[in-house]
Each structure stands twice: as C-alpha cells, then as structure tokens.
Specification:
By secondary structure, this protein is of the alpha/beta class. It has three domains: 339 residues, ANL, N-terminal domain (Rossmann fold), CATH 3.40.50.12780; 122 residues, Rossmann fold (3-Layer(aba) Sandwich); 119 residues, GMP Synthetase, Chain A, domain 3. 30% of the residues lie in helices and 23% in strands. It has a seven-stranded mixed beta sheet, sandwiched between helices. Strands 8-7-9-12-13 form a five-stranded parallel beta sheet, with helices on both faces. Helix 5 crosses helix 6 and helix 13 crosses helix 15.
C-alpha cells in the first residue's frame, strides 16, 4: 500500500487579506465567499443567470444549462451574443469610451495607447478586411503574430463576424504551424513580417511560407502586418498587406449575433500521443468565465492598469490579456519582448513607468528573476502594485515569499491560480479580499467549480491524502470538444473516472479544504512504495539558499522502482563546491524525509524550457535515464541546453 508523505514543508505561514484591500473588495469576507459558493453549487442556474445578465445579450437564453447528453454541455441555450461587442461596443456610451483599452510597449521601446473608441474603429475595419477577403462565419483563421495590439484586433475581428480563430504562439516553428493548419483546415492566416525577441527579429512570415510548402492545406489568403520591416516574400494572389487592405474598407461593421454555443476559438495543446489537441471553446460560457474571474479574482477597478505577462498564443493570453479584461472595461497592458531584454530590469521599469496595479505572471519567470538578483526590482518604484497573481504551474513557497516581499512589498495579496487550457478560466484560487492565503496553496474553488480529490476508483479521499483532482459538475467556460475528434475528447477527459472531468493533475486537500496542487499525475514518483510529487521535492530543493531553480524527474531503479534525479540551477555567484551536492541532498531529506533525498543531483547553467517558460521534463527523464533525447524539440527556447545536460559531468 502506498504511503503519502505529507506535503511541502508543512507550510504554516498564513496571510490574511489586508484591511485596506478588504474595504474596497467585491468579496470582503470568507463568510461572503462561502455563501456565494454554496449558491453556485446548489443553485447553479440561478447563480450563473445572475452573472450572465451583466453581459450584453442580443437574445436571452431559454435554459441556463443542458447537460442531458453528458459530457456535452450547452450553456445559455437559445441565447445570442457577440464577444467583440461585449469587449468593446458596450463600453462606448459612457466614460470608458476614451479610456485606454490597451497600452502597449514593443521590445525596442515604442509605445502606443489605444482607447476603447480607437479599438472599436480598428476592430471594425479589420473585420471588414476579413469579409473583403471572403472570410465568413464558421471559417477557421490561424493567427500567428507577435505580442502587438494587432494580435488582439485580429482575434476580436474574427469574433465580430463569427470566424473561429486559432492562435499559434509566435515562438513555434513552421512544423507546428503545418500541424495546426492540417487539423483546423484553416482558410486564412493572419501574420506579421517579423517580431522582436531579445534584440533579434523572429521571421514569422518566413515560417508561414515554410509551413505552407509542407502543408496540403488550402489556405486562400495570408494577411501580413508590417511590424519589423524585414524582407519577406509576397505570393501574388495569396498574400496581402494588412495596411493596404485597410484602404478599401470603412469602420462600419455591426457585430453578428451568434448562438451562445457558436465556436469562438480552437487552441492547440500538447497531447500524450504527440498529436496536438485542438481544444474548442464556445462563445457565451467561455466569455462569462473569463469575465467573472477577472472581476472577482483580480478584483478589478476602473482605474486599474492590469498586466498579464502571458503571450497571446496561450490560453492565459486569450482569457487574461484580451477577453476577460476587455469585457470588464479594464486597461490591459501588453509587452512584446523578453523579460530580460536588454537586462533583468525591464519588467520592473515597465511597472514603475506605467504605474501597473495588477501583475499576473508565471512561477518560471519569478524563479528566473530570483536567480538574476534582488537588485533589479529594488532599483524601481513598485508601489503602484496592489495585487499579484501566479499562473501556469504550482509556485513553491520560497518563490511565493520572494514575490510577496520583494515585488509586493509585503502588502499585496497573491492569487495563486490553478486552471488549464481546457477549463478556459481560473478554477481554484484565493479571492484577494476574502481568503487567507498560504504560500504554495491555490486555496479554494472558484464559484461553480465542484472540485474534489479522489482515488483511482473515484472515491473522495480524506484530508492530506494525495489523489486525482477532478471536477464533478459542468462549468460555463469548459471546453466543448476536441476539434474534429469528439471520441478523443470523451476518452481524454471523461473516461478515467466515470461521469467527472479528470484534470490530469494530482493534488491533496488539507483539513481546511485548501487545495495543494502537486502537478501532473505522470510527474508523481513512486519511490519504494512512497508517492512523491515532483513539485514537492522541487520546492524543498529551492528552499536551499544556493538553489535558484530545480526540476525533478524519476529514473528506473531495480530496488526502489524509481530513483529521484534533481537538475539544479544555482543562484548567480554561487559556485559548485565538493560538498554542495551532498549538502543539497541532506537538505531535501531534512525538509521532506529521507525517502525524498535525490539519488543524483546534477548542476546545470539552464534547464530545457519551452518558449513559454515551462520546463520540458520529458527531455530530462530521457537524460536522467541515459537515453538519447528523442521526440519533438521544436518548442525549446535553447537547443544547446540539451547538449550541455547530456554531456558527462566533470
């Protein structure tokens, strides 16, 4: 029988919401949260109907939820609305008309501010460009853009006419574009000549050209925005310039009323088979999820400058750079380039100059900032910040505390959010004016989210016992299917435990009901009958004063089943000494227990990461096991990292 090692440094630090924050918060107490949460679970139709009434509907729904053919959900049945209209038009009759919708800074340093009225003009004009190029309701359009306002304009223009967009991250290769073209059967591509990344131009249009040479997809039109001014090839009859197309259209483009279940976008996420999964989100439920979570989780105010640092190519960029903030009438800040260009002070300089109030970023970025040194943020005035957020993976306690103390000045609540591409919106999170936070815990479910920890048979486990994280009831922003493969949708998400959504993540819940996310179930190690979450061991490693970042994987072990291999990046200025490896091993043993001590600690200048900053543990597993690295490495930020890690240590 597997034993469960109680987690994560037995974290005892609790941070109650500050009184000044609570005074202005929408949800001001745990009691208020409890009352609303109970209603959202017991009377979901009533709860979600009230929330949905804050959106602009062309036609009201006849039924809040149809779950009669589970796992197919239909939300706000019979209702009609338009996402673009909800994000822009409905703000134009009041003071938000001339308010900044998007503030943008390019990596070279250019700046633009676009008001809601100006955004409306640009979206309408580009929607007419789409129509001029024979793109119509239901057509799939692939968007492959840098982090510039036109990427948001393209998304909103598609939504305005009912075209289904599929955004591909601008760091992906031509091979990735080809796969997504083939699967989505896109009729058009919206791209740019290039974008900036660490002082270099990323050749976006060339990547599109290469993908089209490889693909049999019948792409009729490629619309190209001039961004970097690099030389590109224009294929006559297929390729057109964005700016020239605008010369033929006006700004009169009424939004098309769309069924609540009309597809809004397809976003591809990696699958265990190697074939990307096209996660399909629809109009009404998705928008409501993004709208409500921005309203309650980030507790936004009209005067806020809100910065989600995610790229527009990820779901975080969809929900929390574009749709959620704009639906709330918030000013959303966008930045094009790398966080360390030209140096590690870029983010903090932006926050000081733009007086950013809310920062939502990833633990990977936070750990990189820690490694770079406190001197960078300490050079800047970060007093405008009032709320911090974390997204993408579990955040270890040391990174949480650094974020709280150095970036938040000890005064800003941290919302540590758990959710996925498939969920569309935040699922487990503190509400900053109501929920006491504990470093590394995502705390409690958002409204309407019936989350539980269960064993392999689907039975809910006791407190502090690890298990599978599941969602037992449908929620508005849930994915509706995998595009073109509904059987895979049912098998991937609804077959593990009958009748419930399995997230693929492991977690535990403490005696107070707080959730502690362990990470992917396949990242749980089985060491001599003990189940260890890799994130727990990584947290213990990073709590050592010399360690900036760590990744833990398992390798086959004849005696224990699996051995623990730790890849460790040291803080700047720290040197490897003969005793450091054993010191780090002993530290993990003291923090968690002897069973968790790594069998091997390998020091690395850098870890293999995707361009979005996620550590590619699949590759580390192959290295740890002495295998040749195989499989897709097109999303790697730096291929040389693999060669260095694979080389024998001196």
């Amino acid at each position: 029988m597997n034993k469960n090692i109680e987690s994560l440094l037995s974290e005892k630090r609790v941070f109650k919401p500050a009184k000044d924050f609570v005074k202005k918060a929408r949800i001001k107490s745990k009691a208020q949260y409890d009352e609303m949460y109970r209603e959202s679970i017991a009377k979901p139709d009533k709860f979600w109907a009230r929330e949905a009434s804050e959106l602009l509907w062309n036609k009201k729904w006849t039924k809040v939820l149809d779950w009669s053919k589970a796992p197919v959900a239909k939300w706000f049945v019979g209702g009609q609305l338009n996402v673009s209209e909800n994000c822009i038009d409905r703000h134009l009759d009041g003071p938000r008309r001339n308010k900044a919708a998007i503030i943008w800074e390019g990596e070279p340093g250019e700046k633009r501010t676009i008001t809601y009225a100006q955004l409306h003009d640009q979206v309408c004009r580009f929607a007419n460009v789409l129509k001029r190029n024979k793109i119509k309701k239901g057509d799939r359009v692939l968007i492959y853009m840098p982090m510039i306002p036109e990427a948001a304009v393209a998304m909103l223009a598609c939504a305005r006419i009912g075209a289904v967009h599929s955004v591909v991250f601008g760091g992906f290769s031509s091979e990735s574009i080809k796969d997504r073209l083939h699967d989505s059967k896109a009729v058009a591509i919206i791209t740019a000549d290039g974008g900036y990344r660490r002082g270099s131009i990323v050749p976006l249009k060339k990547n599109v050209d290469d993908a089209l040479k490889l693909s049999a997809a019948e792409v009729k039109r490629v619309i190209v925005f001039r961004r970097a001014g690099n030389d590109i090839h224009i294929e006559e009859g297929r390729d057109v310039w964005w700016h020239r197309e605008l010369e033929y259209v006006d700004a009169n483009c009424p939004p098309v009323p769309l069924d609540s279940e009309h597809p809004l976008f397809i976003l591809y996420t990696s699958g265990s088979t190697g074939k990307p999964k096209g996660v399909l989100h629809t109009t009404g439920g998705y928008l409501l999820g993004a709208y409500c979570t921005v309203k309650y989780v980030f507790d936004v105010r009209d005067e806020d400058v809100y910065w989600c640092t995610a790229d527009i190519g990820w779901v975080t960029g969809h929900s929390y750079v574009v749709y959620g903030p704009l639906a709330n009438g918030v000013t959303s800040f966008m930045y094009e380039g790398a966080p360390n260009w030209p140096d590690w002070g870029r983010f903090w300089q932006i926050i000081e100059q733009e007086r950013v109030n809310i920062l939502y970023t990833a633990p990977t970025a936070i750990r990189a900032f820690i490694r770079a040194g406190d001197q960078w943020p300490l050079k800047h005035d970060l007093s405008s910040l009032r709320l911090l957020g974390s997204v993408g993976e579990p955040i270890n306690p040391e990174a949480w505390m650094w974020y709280h103390n150095i970036i938040g000045g000890g005064r800003c609540p941290i919302v540590d959010t758990w959710w996925q591409t498939e969920t569309g919106a935040i699922m487990i999170t503190p509400l900053p004016g109501a929920i006491p936070t504990i470093p590394s815990s995502a705390t409690l479910p958002f409204f309407g989210v019936d989350a539980a920890i269960v064993d392999d048979s689907g039975k809910e486990v006791p407190p502090n016992v690890g298990g599978k994280l599941v969602i037992r009831k449908p929620w508005p922003s849930m994915l509706r299917t995998i595009y073109g493969d509904h059987a895979r949708y049912k098998q991937a998400y609804w077959s593990e435990i009958k009748g419930v959504y399995f997230a693929g993540d492991g977690a535990r819940r403490d005696k107070d009901g707080y959730f502690w996310i362990v990470g992917r179930i396949d990242d749980v190690l089985n060491v001599a009958g003990h189940r260890l979450g890799t994130s727990e061991v990584e947290s213990a490693l990073v709590s050592h004063p010399a360690v900036a970042e760590a990744a833990v994987v398992g390798r086959p072990d004849e005696i224990k089943g699996q051995g623990v291999v730790a890849f460790v990046t040291l803080k700047t200025g720290t040197k490897v000494t003969p005793g450091l490896r054993e010191e780090i091993r002993a530290h993990v043993g003291n923090v968690i227990g002897p069973i968790a001590k790594p069998d091997d600690v390998r020091f690395a200048d850098a870890l293999p990461k995707t361009r979005s900053g996620k550590i590619m543990r699949r590759l580390l597993k192959q290295i740890a096991s002495g295998e040749v690295v195989t499989g897709d490495t097109t999303t790697l930020e730096d291929l040389s990292v693999i060669a260095k890690l694979s080389a024998p240590e001196e």
